[in-house]
Amino acid sequence: MQRVEKVIIVEGRSDKQKVAAVLKEPVIILCTNGTISDARLEEWADELEGYDVYLLADADEAGEKLRRQFRRMLPESEHLYIDRAYREVAAAPIWHLAQVLLRADFDVRIELLMKGRGE
Known about the structure:
Layout: E1 6-10, H1 13-22, E2 28-31, H2 38-47, E3 52-56, H3 61-73, E4 78-80, H4 94-103
Parallel strand pairs: 1-2, 1-3, 3-4
């Protein structure tokens, strides 16, 4: 049985579902449901010690606020960015999300990299 070593934190359930559909490796995906209190984030920091933590937030003000909070409370987390043109993780094309995750060394469903590109 493969040990899960990576955690991706997203804002919403639709983001979680989209990310899960792209990944080929076992990853824990947690949702903030848009916002998260400092107390809850501190609990997560304790629970996630020893994991590689990634934040994938929307490219909007709420996402930037969440990123600032993570930089302060969980500074070792790595921040993943979608193209600002898509604004939301859930609105980003599946091939773009696959590229973002692949660049961060996640094992993704390679066939999705071509989806929607006419190739």
